[in-house]
């Protein structure tokens, strides 16, 4: 029987979701800072995705799967990085990479696990909501019934670590309105 009440999805272990992580003033500040940054089209295996990105701290090259030091993380993001790190008991310097992504209307991010050098992933949603999805990484476990799909609100924070990071893939369905995300990632010890 269908429930009259919305049922909270059961998130994979290691996934944390914090709605209203930013207040409206903090979001406006970040929108202004993002507007100062030149974003470029994301290229994966020779194909141009519709989303645009800019990365700082480290650059992961998706063509040869290598990592190299990148442009320094702009100081204007320090307050937000401090707030995220306090929330999950890390030091701001633990976040080695900051990625800004712009999703034009109708754009997606396909099923993936994040690049191997990175460990803990923190994602802040800006300007609009989206539908976030998880599915098992192991092919044999994949199927329609194994997809966990739920809304991620603008101004929220999510954290992906542990099993959610290693045993699950994530994706974002076509966005209805322009969305920005700020992704912070820590680097695994073996890559430092
Ligand atoms: O936009 C997001 O929140 C997800 C970003 C992501 O999964 C990625 O850049 O690998």
What is the strand and helix layout of this fold?
Elements: E1 15-18, H1 24-35, E2 40-44, E3 47-56, E4 58-61, E5 66-69, H2 78-87, E6 95-103, E7 109-112, E8 118-126, E9 130-136, E10 148-152, E11 157-160, H3 162-166, E12 168-172, E13 179-187
The structure holds 2-oxoglutaric acid (AKG).
Structural write-up:
There is one protein chain. With 192 residues, the protein is mostly beta strands. Helix content is 14%, strand content 41%. It has three helices and 13 strands, in the order E-H-E-E-E-E-H-E-E-E-E-E-E-H-E-E. The protein has a seven-stranded antiparallel beta sheet. The longest helix is centred in the N-terminal third of the chain and has 12 residues, at 24-35. The mean pLDDT is 93. The chain binds 2-oxoglutaric acid. 2-oxoglutaric acid (AKG) binds at residues 99, 101, 109, 114, 123, 170, 172, 181, 183.
């Amino acid at each position: 029987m269908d429930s009259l009440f919305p049922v909270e999805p059961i998130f994979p272990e290691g996934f944390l979701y914090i709605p209203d992580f930013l207040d409206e003033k903090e979001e406006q500040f970040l929108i202004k800072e993002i507007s100062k940054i030149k974003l470029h089209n994301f290229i994966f295996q020779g194909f141009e995705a519709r989303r645009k990105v800019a990365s700082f701290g480290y650059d992961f090259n998706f063509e040869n799967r290598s990592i190299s030091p990148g442009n320094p993380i702009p100081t204007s993001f320090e307050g937000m990085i401090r707030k995220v790190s306090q929330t999950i008991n890390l030091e701001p310097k633990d976040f080695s990479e900051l990625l800004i992504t712009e999703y034009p209307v109708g754009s997606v991010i396909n099923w993936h696990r994040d690049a191997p050098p990175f460990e803990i992933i923190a994602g802040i949603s800006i300007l609009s909501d989206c539908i976030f999805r998880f599915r098992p990484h192991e092919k044999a476990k994949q199927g329609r019934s194994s997809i966990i799909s739920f809304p991620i609100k603008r101004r929220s924070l999510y954290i992906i670590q542990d099993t959610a990071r290693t045993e699950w893939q994530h994706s974002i369905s076509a966005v209805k309105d322009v969305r920005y995300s700020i992704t912070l990632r820590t680097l695994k010890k073996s890559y430092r």
